[in-house]
Amino acid sequence: MQFLSLYLSLILLRVCIIEAIQCSIENQDRVDCYPETIPAVKEHCEQRGCCYNSNPNVNDNVPWCFFPTDYKAYKLSDYKTTPHGFQGDLTLTSGASHHFVDEIQQLKLLVYLETETRLHFKIVDANKPRYEVPIQTPALQKAAENTAYKVDVQNNRFGLIVTRKDTGVVILNTTIAPIYSDQFLQMSSALPTNDIYGLGERHGGALVSTNWNRLLFWARDQRPQENENLYGDHAFYMGIENDGKAHGVFLLNSNAKEIELQPSPALTWRTIGGILDFYVFLGPTPEEVVQQYTQVIGRTFMPPYWSLGFHLCRWGYGSSNNTWDIVKRMREAKIPQDVQWNDIDYMSKRLDFTYDKTTFDTLPQMVEDLHENGQHYIMIIDPGISNKQPTGTYPAYKQGIELDVFIKDPRTNAPISGEVWPGSTVYPDYTHPNINSYWKNQLSGYEDKINFDGVWVDMNEPSNFVTGSTTGCPNNQYEDPPYVPHVTGGKLQSRTLCSSSKHYNETIHYNVHSLTGLLEMKATSEVMASIRKKRPFVISRSTFPSAGMYGGHWSGDITSTWPDLRQSIASVINFNMFGIPMVGADICGFSGSTNEELCIRWMQLGAFYPFSRNHNMKLTRGQAPVDFSTPVQVPMRNALLKRYLFLPYLYTLFYSSHINGTTVARGLMIEFPEDHTARKIDEQFMWGSGLLISPCLYVSSSRVNAYFPRGLWYDCTTENFGNKINSQGQYETLSAPLNGSIPLHIRGGNIIPAQYPELNTVKSRKQPFILFVAPDNTGKACGQLYWDDGETLLGDGSIKHVAIDFVLLDNTLSSYASNFNYTESMMVSDISIFGISTKPKSVTFNKKEIVKTEIVNGNTLRVEVSADLKENFELKWV
Questions:
Q1: Which positions carry the signal peptide feature in this UniProt record (predicted)?
Q2: Which of these is catalytic: 458, 479, 520, 758?
Q3: Do 129 and 11 reside in the same domain of the chain?
Q4: Which sign does the torsion angle of CA 143, 146, 150, 152 carry?
Q5: Range of the domain at 177
Q6: From the candidates 221, 241, 461, 683, which is the catalytic residue?
Q7: Residue 260 catalytic?
């Protein structure tokens, strides 16, 4: 007996030692096994087969309940190669602790080696279909050869390990506790870097914190604040590895999600529906990662040229005459403006597709006046359609009932009723096959009254001022799922529709909620192109991957504060990574009253948002440039004129984005990933690879501490035109007086096309072109210009256009034009070549001597020419 007792004690000791080893995990490496509450309950934790340690000395965010190193999950079997890659069966390990109810016993792993730099893998239920996001992704014929990645599979405790072949860096390692139940799917992965970007929409810096940071994905009408789920859902991140190589990972899933990052570093994905559908992109440059991502979700739309001008809006004009007065005052003050907008106060009783014929009686005449002056008009449309108007008097409701296109209450099968601006409303179902017919009827009917040029779709998360519906929600597993990500409001129905609301073909809102903005954008863009036979222009509040194919985005109801001014740059950087480059914030802020200094600084910054619109709410002070005194208008006007100067360059960047999926505005980490200082900067940004923008973002400041990555940089502000910074990767203090110019620098190695600015794009397009030539340290530079009529649809490839390459080599600037039947004049009149301090002995243009040359500011050769850019030229100096 004594021997048996000793033997049992040794066994118990051995079990304790093994258990200690299994649970001996550093704090930073703990993967949360109990995400519901903090702290975890010990009994519930151990029921899941997880480790419990309530060490009070650790940070409160460190999990008390965490997975052991040998957590039993799925086992891989029946592994076999396929024409696309390989596949296998996943079986829940016998004896595994149940993490959540309804764990799926049999799964299928499908791995697609899609391209040399793109891996795609899915984990699906082996026995029945689950919801999959219906966006079109590239079809695959056969597996790629010579991939930049290697995929290894761990069998007994299933996990995928994805490694970059050339460096051996592990991009993904998912061997930690994958969970796949009906309403809780989880996958964790180690990360090769703490430098993570993307994962939005969120309110914060461009660099994502990996210090126990939980991010939420469930579209919501939510004023931007940190740690809240906002309007859009973009489960895509980019990581920049230590050597500067970049990779990207994308989870294609539209259900409510959360992502938890931890300092080891690692990342855990959780979603409560659909499937795990991942794409991995190997870059290796950050810009190539974005291109590979947009190749999957779709390239960006090509905007009409006029949309690159300055936009002006306010909720609270109160009448068409007040709106018109602002337009006239802007013209009188000679401040550039291309587009005038109206918020919901233009509507009759806040009904979509109407206008108030009492207060906005002159709206048709105002829009006609805008068009006669080369300007454009856009109005807001909300998805909520009033269902309380007298029978037969409101076509938007009547036709929706006839076409059966409204989201339905699962209890009655009648349209579910919520409450938005007009009161009781119903909601169009943008998954319905009749939706384009319905939407076209409404938009074309309104265009017969008001000849609008674009559409602003708002409140399309969809927003609902009551929880779920005016009659509450059913009691079921979709309204109260076993696990709810930590969304704002605590419930999926908070400020939106019931999760079990019915869409077309028995699809439930639980699955498609976050797709609403994307699907409305798609319908609006397609209908606008059909109605107007021109490029559509759509701006949406709610977005999802692929939204950039159909329009742009603004960052919602930000406040008139200096922190929100600064944060807006990160938003622009992020949405360019998300494939939505037409993006900007409400210049001077939406809510709260601005002041002169803040609004000047915001106008200087906002002049370089890809989408540049000043907009604010009622009951706050007016903040259009002409709402300020004449001295305040001066720096605002100058900032906009500088924007208009560079519009040809911006348009070319948008064309590159449309064709190649490149970013338009980008963070310094995109362009300089090997520079560890540049990786952390989000108070400066670039247009393309050539123009560095360094705004002044702090109250009472007249200087900017700007970072310049290695290379030559040339000042292109009026005050210091041509001044050169030869940087080794350093900060420089730049003068930025309030009444001066925003600091702008052209990067050596770039040739940037520009055009003399005017008060709108119709007028500016008639002005001569300018070329800014910025040699690098070897005396070389290059650049491009894309040009067309600015509004013809690009879809059929027959548009008349010209594409021009500029090359500087050996004191010779050459252009190479590929003209596709474009016939309008494109005269260039001025060429500025930076870095030349002595006037050359001879300057020739197409082998003819040029007389009009000068050295500007002692550092720049300015040459006056007269030539059509559609023809090749050669400028040479000795």
A1: 1-20
A2: 458
A3: no
A4: positive
A5: 74-297
A6: 461
A7: no
